[in-house]
Amino acid sequence: MSSSVAETPKGSVSRKQALESLRKLPAMSASAGRLLGHLARRDCELAEVASLVEKDPVLAAQVVQAANSAEFNRAQRVESVRHAIVMVGVGTIRKFALIRTVANLFSRRAPAPAFSMTRFNLHSVAVGTLMELLSDELPLEYPEGAFLGGLFHDVGTLLIACALPHQYQDTLAISALTGRPLFVCEQNLLGTDHAELSALALEKWDLAEPVKHGAAYHHAPESSAPATGGRKALVPLSLALNKADELVDALGMSIEPTRAIMQTLPSIQFEGYEFNQKRVLERFALEWKAVDAMLR
After folding, report:
1. How far is CA 13 from CA 20, 160, 197, in A?
2. If both were cysteines, with which of 105, 196, 210, 254 could 259 make a disulfide (CB 3.0 to 4.6 Å apart)?
3. What DSSP string runs through 98-118?
């Protein structure tokens, strides 16, 4: 499912043990599944978003609290979900509600000390936001799953941090010392990596096949079967995720605490397709400002 697995060194967790961590994966409730399914659409209207969020008292309280954060510097206090949507915007509340739904599933589990839920949330929503913008520019495979692809591509990292905290700390340390990518260190220590675990988690949660496939191959898009549609090949979700993930990391929104901001950003151009990369980055910066304020 993921890229080739390196030989597991002596003393590390076996692949079987690592995969057994999936037993600790929180169940996706029917209400959470419905919320994800509806809010994944970009054409959600105010009343629909408010109705969905209000059905979850914990999520509703988080939305109101975030909308009242000091980052927004409001003279008027936000008192309800609908008020928050009016003040902050449907798109921002939609993104916030989606990532909080995922994070709330793991709220009863203490992750590894080096893992930051804030970094995870920022990275996941940033990749999802960029994926949606790319879907406006490219014939993307399964465009309706673009945001969910970004949101869930690294959920395997969250699973490792919660279910195998010592191993998570070790992979971070080895990656920092050797300069090797984190997923390579995971393969060496666990016999699997977060990409494969992400896909297996999404399978258990019964998410769409293209989203699972994109997560599985987002570090090895060259190994993913090409998507086709009409006369021209579609851009695989895995390839778009790979480029979006790298760009978001380069912008300083990495899950890893030691990842430095890059002076030269990686390209998000795709061979055979022309679009204005500068326009995408400007739209991203504009959309990201309010989301970033709510998530910090």
Report:
1. 11, 12, 14
2. 254
3. HHHHHHHHTTTS---TT--HH
Nearest to 262 by CA among 270, 253, 274: 253
Beta carbons within 8 Å of 203's beta carbon, 6+ residues apart: 212
d(CA 232, CA 78): 48
Instruction: Name the residue type at position 72.
Output: F
pLDDT, one tens digit per residue, over 248-294 is: 999 999 999 877 777 788 999 998 899 999 999 999 999 998 888 88
| pLDDT of amino acid 123 | 97
Q: Which two tokens stand for residue 282?
A: 């400007």
Specify which residues 140 forms β-bridges with.
235
* Cα distance between residue 282 and residue 285, in whole Å: 5
For 154-191, how does the pLDDT look when each residue is reduced to its tens digit (9 = 90+)?
999 999 999 999 999 999 999 999 999 999 999 999 99
Longest dimension (CA), the chain: 59
What's the pLDDT tens digit per position in 220-239?
A: 999 877 666 555 689 999 99
Q: Is the pTM of this model over 0.85?
A: yes
The tokens for 210 are: 């293209």
- Residues in contact with 38: Cβ distance below 8 Å, sequence separation at least 6, in sequence order: 44, 48, 52
Phi, psi of 139, deg, nearest 5: -75, 75
H or E element at residue 140: none
Residue that is written with structure tokens 């795709």 in the block: 270
DSSP string of 141-156?
A: SSGGGHHHHHHHTTHH
Q: Hey, what domains does the chain have and what are their CATH numbers?
A: 1-26+112-296 (1.10.3210.10), 27-105 (no CATH)
Segment (H or E) for 229: strand 227-229
